[in-house]
Amino acid sequence: MKIIIAPDSFKESLTAKQVCQAIETGLKRVWQEADYVHIPLADGGEGTVQSLVDATQGEIIDCAVTGPLGHQVDAFYGRLGGELSHTAVIEMAAASGLHHVPSAQRDPKATTSFGTGELIAHALENGAKKLIIGLGGSATNDGGMGMLEALGVTFLDDNSHPISGNGIGLTQIKSINVDGLHSQLAACEIVIASDVNNPLCGEHGATATFGKQKGATTEDTQLLDQALSDYADLIASQFDRQVKDLPGAGAAGGLGAAFLGFTSATLKPGIDIVLETLSIDSHLQGADLVITGEGRIDWQSAHGKTPVGIAKAAKKFDLPVIALAGCVGDNYQAVYEHGIDAVFAAIPRPFDLETAFAEAEVNMANLAENVARTVKIGMIRKNG
Questions:
Q1: Which of 8, 94, 367, 381 pairs as cysteine with 75 (C-beta 3.0–4.6 A)?
Q2: What CA–CA distances, in Å, run from 241 to 151, 244, 375?
Q3: pLDDT value at position 373?
Q4: Which superkingdom (predicted)?
């Protein structure tokens, strides 16, 4: 019996790799001789680097880079293992994420994506031929200016003076010089992972949708939205690239627009990128059962999240899919329309969040055992 264990991480309690191990521990109490295949997953957001590194036996590369407020921060990216050793995986939040900015200092006029560019440059200079970049969790609204500045692009004001790549700098651009753009970037395959389809500007754009959580006032929102619109017009006039209305251009404060406007990057849903990178079909062939999961399964899980992503892949092989969760939320049954056959929650009794995190591994193993026993009953009855 071949069982695929392919969950996302359980935020703040277990990595995807740890979830895999806990599930196997429980299943083995019932099926000792089964062939267990661990595929730790992520959907392009937090945990994507770790899951792909774990799944390919790659390595984490630690880097000190420029944080959103211009101070040095500790960041990282992943270099995948085996045949994928020339692939680097970067979460832009590692360098330019909101967690690097204290609540009282959040101001999208001041923050920069420069550190993300430094991570990219480091990966390129250490042999990366392909970049997978997750765009979630940004503290920035600079249209990717900071990232591009770190990669050699110069932004100039109306006096042809260089401008710093941050939100306020975005309001001052009159021309862009790409002569110094990193020489290895053009030959690098770039895939950007985002479940955000927002355009760059307007009522559903980067600033209007996400600016408030980054500290934007009403006046800031108007200022930065107009600046992003002018930025898109400048990209169109100088480089004949239309980015203003592209789905995903507004991801990560306009970082999506920078990739789409200045590189040959393609944008895809994060879970699709992860599954393609791991050649998921080759693992699913010959399997008998797929176990997936995430910390909370609810109606949102049906929209680009890991359990549904792996379920859709599994259904091409007509495989049963069971999802295990820390807990379930409103309308979790929506996932039944997307390839998941059953959902189970791990919490065995009422307790506080701290206890839930502390007991997550034990509870997940116990849940997996109970699921295996239930499935085994069905198998016995089917076989007479």
A1: 94
A2: 19, 9, 54
A3: 95
A4: Bacteria
Six token digits for residue 103: 């609540």
Distance CA 88, CA 48 (A): 11
**Collapsing DSSP states into helix, strand and coil, what is residue 323?**
strand
Bridge partners (DSSP) of residue 324 are 293, 344
Cα 97 versus chain centre, distance: 12
* pLDDT band of 353, cuts 50, 70, 90: confident
* CA dist., res. 244 & res. 267, Å (int): 15
Q: What would the two tokens of residue 27 be?
A: 């299943």
Beta carbons within 8 Å of 112's beta carbon, 6+ residues apart: 66, 68, 69, 70, 96, 140, 142, 145, 146, 164, 165, 166
Q: What is the C-alpha end-to-end distance of the chain, expressed in Å?
A: 18
- Tokens, residue 30: 């019932």
List of residues 6+ apart from 162 with CB closer than 8 A: 154, 155, 156
Q: What distance in Å separates the CA atoms of residue 292 and residue 280, rounded to the nearest whole number? A: 13
Backbone angles phi, psi at 66, to 5 degrees: -80, 125
**The 2-5 sheet, strands edge to edge:** 35-38, 2-5, 289-297, 321-328, 342-345
pLDDT per position as a tens digit, 294-326: 999 999 888 778 999 999 999 999 999 999 998
Residue type, 42: A
Structural tokens at position 357: 């995190």
| Cα 128 to Cα 11: distance, rounded to the nearest angstrom | 29
**Residue 381 pLDDT > 70:** no
Distance (Å, whole) CA 50 – CA 123: 16
Ordered DSSP codes for 289-316: EEEEEEEEESGGGGTT-HHHHHHHHHHT
- Can you tell me the distance from the alpha carbon of 222 to that of 77, in angstroms, rounded to the nearest whole number? 34
Both structure tokens of 172: 């001052």
Q: Which two tokens stand for residue 36?
A: 């267990």
| Domains of the chain: residue spans and CATH | 2-40+284-383 (3.40.50.10350), 48-270 (3.90.1510.10)
Cα 231 from chain centroid (whole Å): 26
Reference 13, options 301, 381, 346, 304; nearest CA is 346
pLDDT digits (tens, 9 = 90+) for 337-346: 999 999 999 8
Name the token pair of 356: 């839930």
